[in-house]
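Customer escalation, tier 2.

The customer says the design service returned an amino acid string that "doesn't look like it belongs to this structure." They asked us to rerun it and document both sides in this ticket. The original structure tokens are below, unchanged.
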């Protein structure tokens, strides 16, 4: 698969804005590892190979286990995730698949039982941001680097 264009070169101002948003995400109330897992789950749904690779590596650097990373696509069927993580994953899936889900009330209620108002807004921003990045990655065919063995 060949990259369609270099979006950093094509529109530096757009990328500058996205990078500024990424800087904000690191200052939010959501735990950094949970942010990585949310980004990973949305990227899996959207089929963004670059982002899946990136966020797996980022999560491992923060101490995430291989077992939980492998189980993330089937998080509902495993005992490996906390209620807070489960609520975040359900909200991530609902918002990433918005045309199909319409952000159902039960998923929202589950998320709100685990997250404060501010955390709910912050989590939603993380989900929105990764969905934008996934559209760049998938749309312009950004592939993971194989440098260093891809890890």
């Amino acid at each position: 698969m060949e990259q369609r264009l270099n979006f950093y070169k094509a529109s530096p101002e757009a990328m500058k804005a996205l990078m500024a948003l990424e800087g904000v995400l690191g200052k939010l109330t959501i735990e950094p590892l949970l942010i990585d897992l949310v980004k990973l789950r949305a990227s899996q749904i959207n089929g963004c190979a670059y982002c899946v690779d990136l966020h797996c590596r980022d999560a491992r650097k923060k101490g995430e286990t291989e077992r939980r990373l492998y189980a993330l696509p089937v998080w509902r069927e495993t005992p490996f995730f906390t209620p807070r993580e489960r609520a975040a994953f359900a909200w991530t899936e609902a918002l990433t698949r918005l045309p199909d889900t319409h952000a159902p009330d039960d998923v929202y209620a589950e998320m709100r039982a685990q997250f404060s108002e501010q955390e709910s807004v912050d989590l939603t921003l993380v989900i929105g941001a990764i969905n934008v990045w996934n559209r760049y990655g998938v749309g312009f065919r950004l592939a993971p680097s194989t440098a260093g063995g891809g890890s």
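Tier 2 assessment: The sequence is consistent with the input. Residues 117-139 form the longest helix (23 residues). The radius of gyration is 15 Å. Sent an explanation to the customer and offered a walkthrough call.
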